[in-house]
């Protein structure tokens, strides 16, 4: 009789341990999936940013043929674009770094301002608005701005879901130990950022 009770308790303990192990594996796999969605969303955002940075120099060079007297404005766009590309490369090298994302967002804000000044100055050049290449590049940039905005929203949603998964109990007790570090949101900290349309030439 004593032996059968001992076997029963060992069996119950084994089942409890097995259930606990399955539960822990489920939590781990859920965190892995959430982190994978963050990385996937970051990759989508990265693709849109690369496309944007390939369009801007073409737009500036085409505008340069019509705006010879606006060298300072055009050079400011190229300079801001160069800084933004560098900040973007830093962000890609350190996608989990909040400072890298903040630096890129500030560089993007400066690039948006420079593109806004270019759009304002272009109003004086009607032949610029009639140029088919400028029109096509402007349309591509407008579409890219929309796609980039959606990609950033998707990334931020994935990060928020990942943070929620990290903060549930008892996961919160072991996320650091398991290597599930916090992922930064892609939003500028500080004064509210007004997004500037960069393609209104």
Compact description:
By secondary structure, the chain is mostly helical.
Walk me through what this model shows.
Residues 192-197 have low confidence and may be disordered. The chain has one domain: LemA-like domain (de novo design (two linked rop proteins), Up-down Bundle). The protein has helices at residues 2-66, 71-93, 98-122, 126-130, 132-166, 175-178. With 201 residues, the protein is mainly α. It is rod-shaped.
CATH class descriptor name: Mainly Alpha
- The low-confidence parts are 192-197
Q: What's the order of the H and E elements? A: HHHHHH
Average residue-wise pLDDT: 87
* Largest sheet data: none
Shape descriptor:
rod-shaped
How big is the Rg? 25 Å
Number of helices: 6
Percent in helix: over 70%
Question: Helix/strand-derived class?
Answer: mainly alpha
* Gap from first CA to last CA: 89 Å
Instruction: Give the CATH architecture.
Output: Up-down Bundle
Report the strand count: 0
Strand content: under 5%
Q: Total domains, how many?
A: 1
Assign the CATH superfamily: LemA-like domain
As for the CATH topology, it is de novo design (two linked rop proteins)
């Amino acid at each position: 009789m004593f032996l059968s009770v001992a076997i029963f308790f060992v069996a119950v303990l084994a089942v409890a341990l097995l259930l606990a192990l399955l539960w822990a594996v489920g939590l781990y796999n859920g965190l892995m999936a959430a982190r994978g969605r963050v990385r996937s969303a970051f990759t989508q955002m990265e693709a849109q940013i690369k496309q944007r940075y390939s369009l801007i120099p073409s737009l500036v060079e085409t505008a340069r043929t019509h705006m010879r007297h606006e060298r300072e404005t055009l050079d400011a766009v190229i300079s801001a674009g160069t800084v933004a590309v560098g900040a973007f490369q830093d962000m890609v090298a350190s996608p989990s770094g909040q400072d890298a994302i903040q630096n890129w967002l500030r560089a993007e804000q400066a690039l948006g301002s420079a593109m806004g000044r270019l759009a304002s100055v272009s109003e004086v050049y009607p032949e610029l608005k009639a140029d088919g290449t400028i029109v096509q590049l402007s349309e591509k940039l407008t579409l890219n701005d929309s796609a980039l905005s959606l990609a950033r929203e998707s990334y931020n949603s994935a990060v928020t879901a990942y943070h929620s998964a990290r903060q549930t109990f008892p996961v919160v007790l072991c996320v650091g130990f398991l290597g599930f570090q916090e992922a930064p949101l892609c939003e500028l900290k500080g004064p509210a950022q007004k997004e500037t349309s960069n393609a209104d030439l």
